[in-house]
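Appendix B, example 12.
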Amino acid sequence: MVSDFRRKKLMYMFKVLDKDGNGTIEKKDFEMSCCFGACRAHAAKQRELKKGDATYDECFDIVWDALQKVGDSNSDGQVSAEEWVTMWDTVSKNAADQDWLDKYCKFVFKMQDLNGDGFIDSDDFVAANIKSGASKEDAFAAFQKLSQGKSKISLTEFQELWYDFFISEDPNAPGNFIIGRPSFE
């Protein structure tokens, strides 16, 4: 069972991904969502990648296909809000689904590491999250809480923070700020 706090986090992320606001996440929403503001087109431009490059397309397709497999329980090509919450509850309990969570995490990390140095610093994080509608001030404040005062976040650290956001019931977990905002309203 998902707590009210965790449901609030998950539904916040659902709304970020449901770009057309129709109550489901479809591939077109996922493509437009920029995944936490890490707009793949922006990241591709910054890193001189083009559509068709493995990093640009493969990561996205792997994550979308896995989301469909794990989250679309009725196989209708879209993930409803209830399927989304159920998926995260299942992923937190099922080691077999951890592979998808790891792929999704690595995809978002690559897209937020705009300069491609293997770390997310405040400039990367702020720029990526502004793309999804966060203010510069909120994104910067969220990075300070997320990074716990460090100047950059490694993939290993990001993975721990990622799990905090999606799996943790702890309202004080630093990973709760991975969305670039101070709250889930």
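The two ends are 22 Å apart (CA to CA). The chain has one domain: 4-173.
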